[in-house]
Design brief:
Two copies of one chain form a homodimer.
Chain A (H helix, E strand, L loop, with lengths): L10 H11 L5 E6 L12 E2 L9 E2 L3 E4 L13 E3 L3 E3 L11 E4 L4 E2 L4 E3 L9 E2 L10 E3 L7 H9 L4 E6 L1 E6 L4 E2 L10 E2 L2 H11 L3 E4 L7 H14 L2 E5 L10 H8 L1 E5 L3 E2 L5 E5 L2 E6 L3 H17 L10 E6 L3 E2 L5 E11 L2 E6 L8 H5 L2 E5 L5 E2 L4 E6 L3 H4 L2 E6 L3 H11 L4 E6 L2 H9 L6 E3 L10 H7 L4 E16 L13 E4 L4 H13 L12 E2 L2 H9 L5 E5 H6 L3 E15 L6 H10 L2 H10 L2 E2 L6 E5 L1
Parallel strand pairs in A: 13-16, 13-17, 14-15, 17-21, 19-24, 22-25, 29-30, 33-34, 33-35
Antiparallel strand pairs in A: 1-12, 2-11, 3-10, 4-6, 4-7, 5-9, 8-9, 18-20, 20-21, 22-28, 23-27, 24-25, 24-26, 26-28, 31-36, 32-35, 32-36, 32-37, 32-38
């Protein structure tokens, strides 16, 4: 029997349901001031005493009675015998009402001479100047900042009542192993509650992770019962789909009510909104990106009803590089890499697969395609929500095209110089076209032309008249990756794993097949495409294929054999105008650095002598 | 002898000096993943294994050999006998290369019938789809986010190497008492290292606070020697001025070198930049706002050289409400309350006194007046740096005018509704003028006109023709605050403490003096002005004055006597157009709420029956 969701409601309905279904009364905890940063005040906080507590001197000088200084001048200095020496912060003695700066005093034997009159209360910090006893320092529902902590301490507050929302997190699933263990085939590391706890702690929640509960009805029920008793909000990770071993909805129904099962968002549809003993119990989907979307779009709005808020990083208007289709009736959230190219923000969609957790690592922004929309066209200006501070987003360098492990290592090196290199893997031709549309800062490519040269003929043909420079990252070896040292000529006898059309490696393979007179149809697996060098090596390593074409470093990383075929120029093409951009300058300098050459040598398969050079090209 | 600073350098020179004087090599610490959020990676992190580790099903369904499905159609269904039932995430058995969704399968007795062919690798998540073994997950110098933690766990990483910069914080000063103690007169709570530790921890530093060291040369020297040995960076709080007991510079010179003493910034000038054993030793000024400025402008840039970064909240362009004069040659930093009025950001300067720590609590932004500038005129557009997330700044409601303790309580209540009420104390007339200039959202006022009515005649005169509404916060009693029940008629026999010109209370006093035929000159202290009700009450409580005029709640807060004089309308004036603003709606609703009326009753001295009403006024 295939079970279906009980119902699917819209995101707006889900948020409305959350608003209506729970009391959302936060608890209160008292924390010492040292631990209060980022917490939210539960009640207004008042000054225990005035600061200053008495009139004090604002300067190093002498305390005087101002009426005794009347008439003092250069011609008629006034000598005071009962002035009192005070330092900054000292109490003004009773009867005194002003301070003269020490620089303006001529000191004699127990006397002080001044040459200017002073007005009453000059250089005196009156009692309560900073704050008066009983005054409100902070309202309730205020997120405590470091500066607030300093002020609270000064005004006599040593511990503060903060909101306490206890969130329990129960991972369920017989396929899960705890973080730190290597999962056997078909099992995965339980990472969702770890991610959720880190996220919700940033919003100020008190998170508690429970042990993994296997998919056994009674065990899940017992865990949920305990989790509800010990927390204000309970999140049950996974088991929220409609599979045969997805018990979460049944358990919630058993112990309380399922208010909704299924919300029309993508990723994240199989979410459960439940209530047990009046408390929210939310069933999270299992795919990490689906869980993350539900946390952001449903759980954080729920926590905001308790007064907790996750500070966000604001939004920007960006030009979308790729058309995104979306289902009418579903709010879809798409992760993005955004970067500023010239004056405009450009947004490149990440993989939309809910299983590709790396998308969340790579993305620095996201966007929503509303339920009423069928999608967004490439070139449209969209509102993107940032996932990093704006100044970090400003550091993003969009590098679209051919991928190579050396590019990741370059990203690592330039990070030390404040550049956030986002590499988007489209293959060389994809990069060429992205560069033409100004959808990226730079395009890494290795496109072999019929004349035996690299890249320039393609740039001249596809970007005629444009002022382009080419930065050589490395001359690198491409070859046959296999378990047992298969050579190019032996390919027809083995199962192959290919790269996607438009990739430079595919074009190189086809060039060599023509040169050797080998028909593609004679190679089993020629039609099976993957998109990176490492994916080729993985297919070989797992036995799915016997051989594929790729770079040496990919073979070396997985301990595979490599038989060289050709050496090619792996270059980064970009518009010359960008050379003035400090991010690009940092990149150019890093490519020719000793540190990068050392890394290339350690990866193997790269010629480093020719690297770092800039070739100029006027189309 | 008056000691002077050794030298005063510009902020730019100080930053350059910092860049040249230290190696700034961060240490590395290994932390478990659970504690890694907000830390910065010390090295690139690579995947320990591929995810998925084998080809797995992306759907609940059956694993098939795709070539066996060729030709399947509605007319010619294909029945497979060796298909294998798989759930999402299950391993695809060897020899199988595609998955058919369970919804598209007709199940018989051990057989599966399908009516459509499937292409190879359909609904299969290939090995390494998410990430391949050995691929880089994160570069170095990456600030770890919750999503990164989830991904790291999934890819086999259980602990991470993060930057570790140990920052020692030594509070010095015989005038200091630890947080939680009530300081006797002339002493203050040591709050600067608490604030600094909270701030630098947000940037990812490992902070250690040392006990308070009294101003004794040998004790300070021993503390600094230990602090340098145990940390990468040492901050010595206070003792950095040129007073007789300011030893910090001498101690640094004794143990190492003073590179600079005095930087031309305000607040924060008496900073020391030193070096001991090659490590940075920074002497912070004692005034909290000066210390905070040095932390932000000098210490954080220093820590950024170790790879630590404090995420900032970006900037905005805002219209300055008040002219700010500034000394040429000094970079001055001014704390601001900024709010959006209509489409424009408006910036109101906070008190510039370095001793007013509450300014840092009240401010949600700051600006820099560059060294080359003499100041900024009111009305100029300036760049403000936000100190809160943009969405929090959007919540700010600027309320400028007359202050009343009830206004703080109103701020507390509306905070629960997402409004951040910034009250700026200028007195009623100041509020009226701010409203006229559209420098605030609303102006609280209680201006008695000669005809005995409140506020309306002033609005008609100063804002003629403008569409204004008045929201009555309360009818409140003003009276004589004293220790021993002094009445209005007895004022000439006692010392008085007055409110500033332009305040409604001052105008009320003058009205009553005229009415009773009392000459201001007959009242001792008539010229001594303070700016809040509580400041009046404090002056009375400390014995500086015998009596003053103010509201009942101020007298009650300090346990003083109160003899009523008059009842007045304390109203909030605003432009009618703002009634549509959700922040203003929340305010209007809150004023008429039971919760607010209960608070007014508990404060005492307010009539609550007339509150919450809106009066409309067309000039």
């Amino acid at each position: 029997m295939v079970r279906r969701y009980l119902s699917t409601i819209s995101l707006a309905e889900a948020l409305d349901l959350i608003g209506r279904s729970y009391a959302c009364v936060p608890g209160t905890a008292t924390v010492p001031l040292e631990e209060a940063a980022g917490r939210t005040t539960a009640a207004p906080i008042f000054a225990r005493f005035s600061v200053p507590g008495t009139h004090v001197s604002a300067m190093d000088g002498i305390a005087v009675r101002s009426e005794e200084t009347v008439g003092a001048s250069e011609q008629h200095p006034v000598t005071l015998s009962d002035a009192v020496r005070v330092n900054t912060g000292n109490v003004i003695p009773p009867g005194y009402d002003a301070v003269v700066m020490i620089e303006d005093v001529w000191m004699g034997d127990g006397t002080f001479t001044i040459r200017r009159p002073v007005s009453p209360w000059q250089h005196v910090r009156p009692v309560g100047e900073d704050i008066g006893e009983s005054e409100m320092i902070l309202p309730s529902r205020h997120r405590i900042r470091p500066h607030d902590i300093g002020a609270l301490a000064s005004y006599g507050v040593a511990d503060v009542a903060v909101l306490s929302v206890r969130v329990g997190l129960i991972p369920t699933g017989s396929e899960l192993v705890p973080p730190g263990e290597r999962p056997p085939p078909g099992k995965v590391v339980e990472s969702n509650t770890l991610m959720a706890a880190a996220l919700l702690r940033e919003a100020g929640a008190d998170c508690r992770r429970y042990p993994i509960t296997p998919d056994e009805y009674e065990l899940v029920r017992d865990a949920v019962r305990l989790g509800v008793a010990e927390n204000d909000v309970l999140l049950v990770s996974a088991g929220s789909s409609a599979g045969t071993r997805d018990f979460t909805a049944d358990v919630i129904r058993d112990l309380g009510e399922v208010l909704a099962h299924g919300v029309a968002i993508k990723p994240g549809k199989p979410v459960i909104i439940g209530r047990i003993d009046g408390k929210p119990v939310i069933g999270l989907p299992g795919y990490p990106l689906a869980a993350a979307t539900v946390l952001r779009e449903i759980v954080l709005p729920l926590l905001s009803r308790y007064g907790l808020v996750l500070p966000d990083f604001g939004s920007a208007a960006a030009r979308l590089t790729t058309t995104l289709h979306s289902e009418i009736g579903t709010d879809e959230f798409v992760l993005l890499s955004v970067g500023r190219i010239g004056d405009a923000w450009v947004a490149v969609p990440q993989s939309r697969g809910a299983g590709v957790q790396m998308s969340a690592v790579r993305a620095n922004a996201y966007m929503r395609i509303p339920a009423a929309s069928e999608g967004v066209e490439a070139g449209e200006i969209v509102t993107v929500r940032l996932r990093v501070p704006l100044d970090t987003a400003e550091e993003a360098l969009l590098v679209t095209g051919s991928h190579d492990p050396a590019l990741d290592r370059l990203a690592d090196l330039v990070r030390r110089r404040g550049v956030d290199l986002h590499s988007i893997h489209t293959g060389s031709m994809g990069g060429l076209l992205a560069l033409k549309r100004r959808d990226c800062h730079a395009a890494p490519m290795h496109l072999l032309a019929p004349d035996g040269t690299y890249n320039v003929p393609y740039l001249q043909r596809y970007l005629p008249g444009e002022d382009i420079v080419l930065l050589c990252i490395a001359e690198r070896q491409q070859g046959i990756i296999s378990r047992e040292g298969i050579t190019f000529g032996e390919l027809p006898d083995h199962t192959f794993i290919n790269r996607q059309k438009g990739s430079g490696t595919r074009m190189l393979l086809d060039h060599w097949l023509r040169k050797h007179g080998i028909a593609p149809s004679s190679i089993a697996g020629y039609d099976r495409e993957v998109t990176t060098h490492l994916a080729v090596a993985l297919a070989v390593k797992t036995g799915e294929a016997d051989a594929g074409m790729g770079v040496y470093s990919a073979a070396q990383a997985l301990g595979l054999s490599f038989v060289p075929v050709a050496t090619e120029r792996y270059e980064l093409a970009m518009h010359r105008a960008l050379l003035g951009d400090p991010r690009v300058s940092a990149l150019v300098e890093t490519v020719s650095s000793d540190a990068f050459r050392r890394i290339l040598r350690s990866l193997g398969g790269y010629e480093t002598d020719g690297t770092g050079g800039l070739r100029e090209l006027r189309g």
